[in-house]
Amino acid sequence: MVIIYQKLMLESLQNNGVLYFEGVLENIVEELSLHLDEDIENVAMTLDLFTKSGLIQLNDSNDIEMLQVPALIDQETNWSKYKRNTRNKEDVKKLDNVQLLSNHCPTEIEIELKSEIKIESEIKIESESEKEHDADSEYKKLTDFYQGNFGVISQIISEDIKFNLKDYGYDLVYESMKRAIFRQKQYAYSVQILKSWSKNNIKTLSDVEADDNKFSRSKTTGTDDKSDWTWAEKKAGFREV
């Protein structure tokens, strides 16, 4: 329960200590259980314990307020202050070293080397800029797809899509959302699909196709023992193909 409580605190950081009830599932306990990948009963017990302890509060909108987080965000530990001061001193030392060498007349080789370093640096910056542009473009496609099929997107769902894009890649996130739509399910169903693929080491669309074929063969021969099904698949009574 302490681990689950710590997970809840981390999840609430981006909203100043508040965990919003999105209405995707029946209640916030089920939503948190799905998001944290924890058992519903354990999440419910954790919320009950820390609510009684005065560390968690449930407001009228069924949102959960982590009462310790706002205070912790504004605090800076002595170790953090020490590290910050140390970094400042190191920056001053580096500046002093540069000033001592400023009278040195660079040779032709040094000038050429600096030019090459500058070019490599510019190429690296340009490459990183292109990657960021591609990631932003893919993120926009996914959020547009969400709003066109699931409805108005919230901040939490928007952030979740961004994390999934980083963890699983555009192709798998898009494919999982399509499958949720075809099954007439909510967005949370696509998250379960992604977790199931990750658990089975499925990282590309080719892996997905191979897994689908394997599942189809097992359905035909009746050899699927459901041992590797996720909790959501067992509850639904079928496995995504």
TrEMBL record:
Residues 144-211 form the DnaB/C C-terminal domain. Pfam families: DnaB_2, Phage_rep_org_N. Residues 1-89 form the Phage replisome organiser N-terminal domain. InterPro entries: DnaB/C_C, DnaD, DnaD-like_sf, Phage_rep_org__N. Belongs to the DnaB/DnaD family. This is Replication protein. It comes from Pseudolactococcus chungangensis CAU 28 = DSM 22330.
